[in-house]
Amino acid sequence: MSIPILKNNEGKTAISLEEKAAFLKEHAFSRPIEADLGDILNYRYPRPLEVEDRLSTDEVLAACLRTKPDKAPGPDGIPNRVIHLLARNRIALLKRLFQAYWDLFYHSRAFHKAITVFIPKEGKDRSNPSSYRPIALLDSLGKALESIVATKLKDISEKSNLLPKTQFGARPNRSTETALYLLKERILAILALGKIPSLLALDVQKAFDNVSHKRLIHNLRKRKVPNRITGWIYSFLSDRSTSVRLLDFTSNIEKVDLGIPQGSPISPILYLFYNADLLEESEDISLFITPTGFVDDVSLLTYSNSTERNVRNLEKAYKKCLNWARSHGSRFNPEKSELIHFIGRRKAYKASITLEEKVIKPSKLIRFLGAHLDEGLTYKAHLNALNTKIPNLLKALKSITSLTWGTSLEAARTLYRGAIRPVLAYGALSWCPKDLGKAKGLAKSLQSVQGRFLRAITGAYKATSTEALEIETFIEPLDLYIERSATQGAARQVLRGYGNEGRLYREILRNRYRRRGRPSPPSPLPKSNNPEKPEITEIPTTTAARISREEYYTLLNTRWTKYKKALEAFYATKWKDRWEKSEKGREIAKFHPLPTRKALDLYKNRPKPFCSMLIQLRTRKIGLNSFLKSARVPNIEALCACGEEEETVEHFLQKCPRWKEQRAILNGLKTVKETLGNRENSERAVRYLLATKRLEQFSHIDCELVLEAR
Fold first, then answer.
1. Strands of 290-294's sheet in order across
2. Residue 246 has what DSSP assignment?
3. Can you tell me whether residue 203 is helix, strand or coil?
4. pLDDT per position as a tens digit, 87-115
5. Residue of 183, 186, 469, 701 with fewest CB within 10 Å of its CB?
C-alpha cells in the first residue's frame, strides 16, 4: 500500500518512507495526557474470583484454529497454517507449553515484539497521519495463548456480571445487532410517550493506543478479575516493543510503554474493562441518560419535552465523561462528536451542544455502529449511504465477471450472496420498515440495486427484468431478503432475552409519565398483521432457572431453528405469490412457473460464456434483430437477414434457412422450451449458437473450450 506525502499539525512534511514511518509512529504512540492515578493509592480491592487452573485440550485446540490461516504473520514469520498443523498433530506439545505460561502467570517476552502496520481509515484525508489505524502484527503462537486468556476473561465476566449491561462488542450475544435493536426500542418507546429523544455520539481519541497499564490493572482488580488472569495480563503488558513497517522499509525496534496492541485477541475485552467506569458513571436516572458502549464507541441517549433540556442533560453527563478521561489518560475529540434530535416531522427547535468550548450543531442524520439513522428513523438515510457504496461493490464484482471470460455464474452467485448481499442488509432491524412492502419507493430501489448485480453475475442485457434473473439464479428479491433479515434479527434479540430489557425500559417510562390517554410504548416485536407470519417467544425466566446451562442452550437452538425454518418458508411463499402475479419476466415462467433451486442445475459447472449465452436465449434478450429493434438500437430492423420474418429466438433456433446446416446440431428439437429447457438440450443450443457465429461478442470463442466443463 502506497502512502502519499504526509503533513503533520505543525506543517512539516514526510516524503521518504523513513520520514513517514516516524510521523505515523509519533502520532500513534504519543500520549496526550497522563492518567490521574491518585485514587489508586491505598485502594482496598475486593476478593478476586477464582478461575480454573488447568487448560483443557479442547480450548487450546480451539484457540490455535481460531485464527485465519492466511493472515499476516508476526516478527517470527511463522504463518498461522503452521500453527494449525502443529495443533492438529502435536496438540499435547502446545498444551504443555501454554499450561506452563498459565501456571506462571506469564506471557513470554518473545511474544512482546510487534510489527506495526498502518491501515488507512475509510473516507479520510490520507495525507494526515491521524487518518491511519495502527495494527500490530503479532506472533501466531502468542496470539493463540492470548485467545485462551481472552476467552476465560469473557466467560468469567459474563457469569459474574463484571461488566455493565450497556456495554456491547467483544462479548457473547452482545453484537452490533443487539446494540442497534435496544437503541431503536428505546427511541421508539420515548417517542410513543410524546417526548423528544436526543443522541450524542462521542469520539475517544486513539482509544487503544492511550490505555494506561496501571489504570487497566486497577480496573481489573476492582472488578474482581481472578489473580491468575490479572497477573498474566500484567506480564502481557510489560516490556512491549514494536517496529514500523511501510512497504519494504522497517524501522528500528523501540519500547512501547502504553496502550494495548490492536491486533491481539485479548485487546477488545481489555478495553471493555478499561472504559466500564465511563458507562457506569455516565448513566444517570435524574438526567434520563442511558449510555451505550461498543468497545471504544460511546453514545449517550436522553429525552425530555424539548431539545434544549436534552442538551443541558447531555452537557452535565459529558462533565462526568471528562472526569473519567482525566483518570484514564484519555481524551475526547469534540470535533468528531455528533448530536441528533429524533424529532420526526414535528416542528421543534434543534438546540446545539457545547463540549469543551466547541459548539456541536445537531445533524439531520448520524452513523451509529455502521447504520445510518435520520431524525425520523426512516430508511432514507441508510439507503442514501448504501447508494454511495454500491458503485464500488458493483465495480469489484464486474472486474471478475466479464461476459466472455469471467468467473462462473455459480461462483459469482456465491460471492454475491455471501459477501455483497449481507453488506446491503447490514443493520436492517434499525432502518428497515416493519412492512417493507408498504414502502414502495424503498422496495423499488432495492429491486433496481439487485438487478444491477444480477446482470453482472449472469451476463444478461440491461433490458432483462430483475424478476426473471432472480428466478434463473434462485436469489430471492432483495426487499424480501432485507425484510426477513430485519425480522429475524429482532426475533433473535427477543429470544436471547433482550425483549425483557425493552419491556423494563418501557415500564420505567410509563411509571415516570403516567398520563391519562397517553399510548403505551410499542412492544419489541409487534404482532404481525399477517396471521401466517411466524413469531417467536423468549424462554420464560422460570424455565431458564430450573434447567442446566446446556439444556437452556439446547432449548434455545431448537426454538430458533424451528422459527428460522418457518420464517424462510413464509418468505418463500411471498416470493412465489409475487412471481405468479408479476407481469415481468414471463418468458422465464414457461420454464419455471415457480421459484425453484432446480433452475441452478442448468448452470452448474459451466463457464461464464456458456451461462451468458444461455440466459440471453432463455430471456429472449439477446443480440438478434427483433430484440435490438425493440431496444431502439439505431439502424436496426426487426426483419431477419433471410427476409422471411422477424429475427426472434424462435426464428433463429427453428426456422431461419441461413443456418440449415448448423441446425443439425439441434438434433431435431422442435420447440424453444424443449431446446432450452434442460441441461442436455441447452448444450446443443449453445453449440448451435457458436457454430452460426451470429453474435459478434461470442464469435471468437472456441466452441469446445466453452463446452468442456459440462
1. 167-168, 290-294, 297-304, 196-203, 338-341
2. E
3. strand
4. 999 999 999 999 999 999 999 999 999 99
5. 701
